[in-house]
Design goal:
InterPro entries: Glyco_trans_4-like_N, Glycosyltransferase_grp1. It is an enzyme of class 2 (transferase). Pfam families: Glyco_trans_1_4, Glyco_transf_4. One of its GO terms (molecular function) is glycosyltransferase activity. With 414 residues, the protein is an alpha/beta fold. It folds into two domains: 196 residues, 3-Layer(aba) Sandwich (Rossmann fold), CATH 3.40.50; 169 residues, Glycogen Phosphorylase B (Rossmann fold), CATH 3.40.50.2000. 41% of the residues lie in helices and 17% in strands. The protein is built from 16 helices and 15 strands. Strands 3-2-1-6-7-8-9 form a seven-stranded parallel sheet, sandwiched between helices. It has a six-stranded parallel sheet with strand order 12-11-10-13-14-15, sandwiched between helices. Helix 2 packs across helix 16, helix 9 packs parallel to helix 14 and helix 12 packs across helix 15.
């Protein structure tokens, strides 16, 4: 065989390796902070690192002693931060345009991805535009919706105006569901691309169920445990959760409520639900065991952009009762792998929660199907999609990827 023919054969069978990108990710929240934005972004950063990209993570310093992580393909830049009102365990960045211009002038990234729209995110957007760097963004938190739960609903329009201005200055905004893409497009947001969320099925799965943990809760093997995981705060609509559980107790007297998380509503909930199990903040295998050791997941929030707890509960084998919204609306086929109710119909939420809690066999069947649905949400596929969007942003080819990921189907409204 001629050398040129042999070389061509090698080229055909061993294509060039994927180009390694220099990616700057800017966020105002990151683990060990516990919230959906922090945890899902950490998955993306880890996935990009595993795919051989150089990642520069820019975020606020969470405590004075914290030192940045350094590695051959990972560079962490810790900026000054301030506590967020009503969220003392979280910090937001401060205006840092000059520092970021200096940083990116000496360590120039191929693309800047901004995960949050706070002062640090705005500074990153300005610095990137000053240096003519391509920028993408995430729409991860419904700050405009949160305003209604804290007596500042009048700020809804100005918050939306700021968010629209922010995101429309980037080449692409990633959103986790098709429904959110449609809503934001109708509100004037441009260049929107759906990049959904994944779930770690090695961590969250029914095999984590623990008889020992249930015994610690003081419940019997067949006793119904209803759970909700997340921040104990007004924007999570927990009044409806308490209402639903009170109705469940009338039909299933031995049922117990398990709340995993902490927040400003804890005292109020303890007074209203004195027999509830308040497990506090949990993580890792401990959190996975709490999910799998329950029997039914109630998710009353209507302010999520996705709601990672939905996929974690489904992967753990729990049927979910939720409003037709965010990740639940995308993943749950009502009556097949969970139950959806129309947005804002609190009576329907309570009614369906009671019906499902009263039927252990149906709970188990829907939970099995929920687990099967979640098994298709591999983080590797999500990261690959994220990577391809970043490459498109660098080429300035605009939004791409109209096809849904495997296992992700937008459900019709209930």
């Amino acid at each position: 065989m001629e050398p040129s023919a042999l070389q061509q054969l090698v080229v055909d069978n061993y294509p060039a390796a994927r180009r390694s990108l220099r990616i700057a990710c800017v966020t105002e929240t990151y683990p060990p902070e516990v919230n959906g934005v922090a945890m899902s972004l950490a998955r993306m950063v880890d996935g990009l690192h595993r795919r051989n990209h150089d990642v520069q993570l820019v975020r606020p310093r969470q405590d004075k002693a914290q030192a940045p992580e350094e590695g051959t393909r990972f560079h962490e830049v810790l900026m000054r931060g301030l506590p967020i009102p009503r969220y003392p365990d979280l910090r937001m960045g401060v205006p840092s345009k000059r520092a970021l211009v200096q940083l990116w002038s000496t360590r120039r990234p191929d693309v800047v991805h901004i995960a949050t729209e706070g002062p640090l995110g705005w500074s990153a957007l300005q610095a990137a535009q000053h240096l003519k760097l391509p920028v993408s963004s995430d729409f991860r938190t419904n700050f405009h919706a949160y305003s209604r739960h804290y007596g500042i609903g009048w700020l809804h329009k100005p918050i939306m105006a700021y968010l629209r201005k922010f995101h429309n200055r980037t080449r692409c905004t990633m959103v986790p569901t098709e429904a959110l893409r449609r809503d934001l497009a109708a509100a004037g947001f441009q260049r929107l691309v759906v990049v959904t969320r994944g779930v770690d099925t090695q961590l969250f799965n029914p095999l984590r169920r623990s008889a020992q943990l249930r015994a610690q809760w003081g419940v019997q093997p067949r006793q119904m445990v209803v759970t909700c995981v997340g921040r104990l705060a007004a924007e999570k609509n927990l009044g409806v959760l308490a209402q639903a559980f009170e109705a469940i107790r009338q039909r299933v007297p031995g049922a117990r409520l398990l709340l995993v998380g902490q927040g400003p509503m804890q005292a109020e909930l303890q007074q209203r639900c004195p027999d509830a199990i308040f497990a506090g903040q949990r993580s890792g295998e401990d959190l996975a065991a709490h999910y799998a050791s329950a029997d039914l997941f109630l998710f009353p929030s209507m302010t999520e952009t996705f709601g990672n707890v939905t996929t974690e509960a489904m992967a753990s084998g729990l049927p979910v009762v939720a409003f037709h919204h965010a990740g639940a609306g995308q993943l749950i086929s009502s009556g097949e792998n969970g139950v959806l109710v129309p947005m804002g119909d609190n009576d329907a939420f309570v009614r369906e929660a009671v019906a499902l809690a009263s039927d252990a066999a149906r709970c188990q069947a829907l939970g099995g199907q929920a687990c099967a649905t979640a098994s298709a949400l591999d983080w590797r596929d999500i990261v690959a999609r994220f990577e391809s969007v970043l490459e498109s942003v660098m080429r300035d080819t605009g939004p791409l990827l109209r096809q849904p990921l495997a296992g992700v189907v937008e459900r019709p409204a209930a």
